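Human: If only I could read backbone structure tokens as easily as an amino acid sequence. Take your time, and here it is.
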Amino acid sequence: MQDTYKTIEQPAEGYITEKKSKFLSFIFPVKSPEKVKEIVDEYRKKYYDARHVCWAYMLGSGREEYRSNDDGEPSGTAGRPILGQINSYELTNVLILVIRYFGGTLLGTGGLIKAYKEAAEDAIKNAEIVEKTIDETLLIHFEYLLLNDVMRVLKQFESATREQDFRESCTMKLRIRKSEFQRLHDSLSQIYGVKIEKDA
């Protein structure tokens, strides 16, 4: 089961020139379309004198949510090549912006695709790519008497992280890699008296 994904932790920049047109590229870690809009709006203001601010993003650990925008360039010559680079590096939860300053020479469809692709790749190459696990969360409730039994099970799952609250009865919130989730769930459900909720 695939339970990891690649993303970046810090923004990075890239830059290329093509026939005197300048392409400034920026990659950002993002988690939502709202954040994408905020960054795109901010960079439109910051680079108000640029001819085009083109972008693409990919979201979700399963890489299921994505969009691209040509911002006035011929259809498919900017946003799609940027998205193509996000795909070829298998990244998610990232936004790449490429800002173009026109240099006076038309690049043609092929030239534009190549330039946007290379600019996006330059930003990716300057970013530090990290691999993260896809985690699932489990909420368990049990009486204090069962604590030793629960801890014995958790010892077998070193990757699980936990938050606990032992004020009245015992409550634990456990996070574990998706591929280990079912095994943890099954092990805990064998302890009589442990109530399990899958946390959304």
